[in-house]
Amino acid sequence: MTERMTPDLCVIGAGSAGLSVAAAARAFGASVVLIERAKMGGDCLNSGCVPSKALIAAGYRAHAMRNAQAYGITPEEPRIQFRKVHDHVQKVIAGIAPHDSEARFRAMGCTVLIGEARFTDPRTVMVGEAEIRARRFVIATGARPVVPAIPGLDAVPYFTSETIFDNTRKLTHLLIVGGGPMGLELAQAYRRLGSEVTVVEAGTPLGRTDPELAAVALNRLARDGVAIRANTAVERVIARSMGIGVVIRSENGEERLDVSHILLATGRKPNLEGLDLQKARIRTRKDAPDRIVLSAGLRTSNRRVYAIGDAAGGAQFTHLASYQAGLVIRNALFGLPVRQNPDIIPVATYTDPEIGQVGLTEPEARKRLGDRFRILRASFGENDRARTELETHGLAKLITDRRGRILGGSVVGPGAGELTAFFAFCVANKLSARHLMAFVAPYPTLTEIVKRLGTEYYREAAQNPLLQKIMALVRRLP
Ligand SMILES: Cc1cc2nc3c(=O)[nH]c(=O)nc-3n(C[C@H](O)[C@H](O)[C@H](O)COP(=O)(O)OP(=O)(O)OC[C@H]3O[C@@H](n4cnc5c(N)ncnc54)[C@H](O)[C@@H]3O)c2cc1C
Ligand SMILES: NC(=O)c1ccc[n+]([C@@H]2O[C@H](COP(=O)([O-])OP(=O)(O)OC[C@H]3O[C@@H](n4cnc5c(N)ncnc54)[C@H](O)[C@@H]3O)[C@@H](O)[C@H]2O)c1
């Protein structure tokens, strides 16, 4: 028998995006139906951020054992028990899972339905026998791995982000197709855990990163022994009784690789199939049918329906999903006008060294502002904490307008992700370089690099003729 529900909000998908909306809506007392077809917690918890960072942590420990010499400790080749590495990753997931669980969301007062949601008309979603006519709907269905059309790929086994964290064995030679954040984070982790790793990237590795910063991380990956083939296509894959043959092509011609396993890290596309969007009069883009047409306030062409997170078709980050959830809550529950501001969304890539960016990067500033901006730079080579850790490779860059307002911050080096949070705070609050001199950083911390950027700003300002005149006047005072 059909069960009818009429909540304030119906959220489709219980990943980072859906869970954030549902929890916030319940905190304000709105009634919520939350629908999930697979695992609560979605990609981030089960096959994205959490397992990848846990694997990176294991790789880091192995790397530290091999490279202890400089600290006066006899280095040792670690014995990698890959099943136990797998267990560590799964334990971390299991430890966080209760936070995203059905039980927790039911206890909050959400009605949680397990099943596949689809629209039947502009106001109605069905899940099995349940019919939900909500005041507002949120599509938070995430994305799934893109499988490129490589001849022969369908005849060999391959990993994607959805399966790689189930692996319990050391992989002899892992070919990673795609040199974006996923490909390179996992390349370094697998290399440090004892695999030979080759990354084949069709364009530029870390192509969305300021090249000056990317080069620092890519050099380290190369030093770790990750082979990165840029501007190279995978032409075809050949199934063999032992291993997999791979034909790649670059400007140097064709080459053959013998690998044991393949991981696809070639991007992710929104999960929209099966939602019956046309029945809800939700339009998708003509040039990109897997992209929903969205307003700056994340509304679809059906004003009752929003789309957020990876399903929204823009950048794919958990913190972006949470930010978008906040915007939807303000608009859907309080009727406030909202507009996404991409300039305040940070990006961090967890290679070693990490890379972080927020707001304008140097290449973007050149494109948008010509020469109407300033770059302040500081190197980790001048940071005492980085020196004590022997982690001096890296730099931070701050982009300001001519009056010192901070428009962007980029950093590669130890703790870059954490430092990017600091820059994100500055950009979101429209702070200027003078604010960097108005706080005291504990010594010795990596954050002191921020003070160094502030000093840079004033070093140039100190040459200002007016300031020099004032100093001359003050000198004459008794
Ligand atoms: C390897 C990897 C590492 C990553 N690392 C980071 C990182 O370090 N930092 C970061 O910010 N981001 C990272 N990301 C990206 C991040 O995981 C995603 O941006 C984030 O999880 C998106 O959340 P979401 O809620 O939009 O989608 P998801 O988490 O995918 O959730 C969508 C949910 O909707 C469900 N669903 C889909 N269709 C339906 C339907 N019709 N009915 C019911 N349920 C449905 C799905 O089962 C899923 O559970 C990483 C991604 C990968 C792959
Ligand atoms: N630290 C983080 O925040 C983090 C980490 C991992 C993943 N993610 C997110 O998850 C999503 C997926 O990550 P990703 O790295 O797979 O996606 P991506 O789109 O960032 O990178 C994919 C890369 O694969 C390359 N590529 C595509 N097809 C190819 C082919 N046939 N042969 C060779 N190269 C090919 C592209 O040129 C690109 O560089 C991204 O949106 C990313 O933002 C985030």
From TrEMBL:
Q: Which UniProt keywords apply?
A: Disulfide bond, FAD, Flavoprotein, NAD, NADP, Nucleotide-binding, Oxidoreductase, Pyruvate, Redox-active center
Q: Name one Pfam family in it.
A: Pyr_redox_2
Q: Which InterPro entries does UniProt cross-reference here? A: FAD/NAD-bd_sf (IPR036188), FAD/NAD-binding_dom (IPR023753), FAD/NAD-linked_Rdtase_dimer_sf (IPR016156), Pyr_nuc-diS_OxRdtase (IPR001100), Pyr_nucl-diS_OxRdtase_dimer (IPR004099), Pyr_OxRdtase_I_AS (IPR012999)
Kindly state what the record says about how the cofactor is bound. Binds 1 FAD per subunit.
| Stretches assigned to the Pyridine nucleotide-disulphide oxidoreductase dimerisation domain | 345-451
Where are the disulfide bridges? C44-C49
- Membrane recorded as keyword: no
Requisite cofactors: FAD
The keyword Nucleotide-binding belongs to this UniProt entry's keyword annotation: yes
Q: Where does NAD(+) bind?
A: G178, G179, G180, P181, M182, G183, L184, E185, E201, G267
Q: GO molecular function terms here?
A: flavin adenine dinucleotide binding; NAD(P)H dehydrogenase (quinone) activity; oxidoreductase activity, acting on a sulfur group of donors, NAD(P) as acceptor
What SUPFAM superfamilies has UniProt attached to this entry? FAD/NAD(P)-binding domain (SSF51905), FAD/NAD-linked reductases, dimerisation (C-terminal) domain (SSF55424)
- Looking at the record, the residues that make up the FAD/NAD(P)-binding domain are 8-325
- Where on this chain does FAD bind? K53, D310
The entry's protein name is Pyruvate/2-oxoglutarate dehydrogenase complex, dihydrolipoamide dehydrogenase (E3) component
